[in-house]
Amino acid sequence: MRVDQIWKYPVKSMLGDRVQAASLAENGVVGDRMFALRDEQRGAIASARRLAKLSRLGASFRDDGGAVITLPDGSTVATDDGDVSERLSAAIEHPVSMWAKQPAENTEFYRRGQPDNPDFLADLRDIFGRVDDEPLPDFNVFPPEMMEFEYPPGNYFDCYPLMIMTTAALRSLRAALPESVIDERRFRPSLVIESDADGHPEFEWAGRRMRLGTAEIQFGAPCPRCVAVTREFGDDMPSDRSVLRHVVRDLDQNVGVYATVVTPGDVAVGDAAELL
Fold first, then answer.
1. Is the four-CA dihedral 226, 37, 141, 221 of positive or negative sign?
2. How far apart (Å, rounded) are the C-alpha atoms in residues 201 and 251?
3. Which residues neighbour 118 within 8 Å (Cβ) at sequence distance 6 or greater?
4. pLDDT above 90 (res 147)
5. Residue 207, H or E segment
6. Which of 195, 187, 157 is nearest to 254 (CA)?
7. How much is the average pLDDT of 80-95?
8. What is the pLDDT of residues 110-146, one digit of tens each?
9. Nearest to 98 by CA among 114, 78, 113
10. What is the chain's alpha carbon radius of gyration, rounded to the nearest angstrom?
11. CA proximity to 39, closest of 125, 150, 121
């Protein structure tokens, strides 16, 4: 197996950059998710789980560490522009503000905001996109602090630093959903591993380690999927609820697998991906 793709997402819940090489640190891909929007109605960090129109925005890094965001109409705005919050609020029709990643000590910033639905279970079903006869995920998969915080304090990633997929998983999804647009951008992987296996081989990697370049990662549980995978990502990738129906019904709710970094190092496209 080899590294097929490496992704960086400058702004949480927006489309990101496919890069040729990256460094892995304890908190994931260096430079990943350095910015996020804050939902000014809920008083919490925003995500595409609740604000669907975020998925149509794309972000690319600048050399100075900032990022440029491309809006659906093709115009751009930088993360440090004076009117960035106003323009993004107008683009997604919801009041938001731009925030660089805050220190872990600022726990209030990361704390969960007001739910959209006062019915706790109904709110969870909305977030995870589950219809009435579908189960919610096993919440034991998630770190316990996720009940209190939107994201792990000090970070903008979902639960764990890395989410790994294989080219086999993408082939399997395309075969199962021939009428859908299946693109890795829908699932926001950190790394995509080239594999000639069938199905979703990464589901079997839980508990194992992998060497990638000079880095080593530890696989955790498969990644439960939420409503974000159904969003519209652009004219070439429309909203599609059937993707989540297949994932819940046929894949035990999961696509890809979570991972943490055991040994920081550098990884590049084409590097061997060796299971240990």
1. positive
2. 12
3. none
4. no
5. none
6. 187
7. 97
8. 999 999 999 999 999 999 999 989 999 999 999 998 8
9. 78
10. 18
11. 150
Rounded to whole angstroms, how far apart are CA atoms 4 and 195? 9
Q: Which residue has the tokens 């080899």?
A: 2
Q: DSSP string of 79-124?
A: TT-TTHHHHHHHHHTS-EEEEEPPPTT-HHHHB----SSSSHHHHH
pLDDT tens, 96-114? 999 999 999 999 999 999 9
Residue with tokens 């009117």, as numbered in its chain: 83
Q: Taking residues 82-89, report their average pLDDT.
A: 97
Closest CA to 157 of 239, 223, 105: 223
d(CA 56, CA 94): 14
Write the CB contacts of 91 (distance below 8 Å, at least 6 apart in sequence): 53, 57, 71, 72, 73
Kind of pairing, strands 191-194 and 162-166?
parallel
Distance of CA 96 to the CA centre of its chain: 19
DSSP element (H, E) containing 244: helix 241-250
Half-sphere exposure (CA, 13 Å, Cβ side) for 228?
A: 23
* pLDDT exceeds 90 at position 75: yes
In this structure, whether the domain defined by 2-275 belongs to CATH 2.40.33.20 is answered with: yes
Residue 267: count of CB within 10 angstroms of its CB: 21
pLDDT for res 239: 96
Encode pLDDT of 214-242 as tens digits. Answer: 999 999 999 999 999 999 999 999 999 99
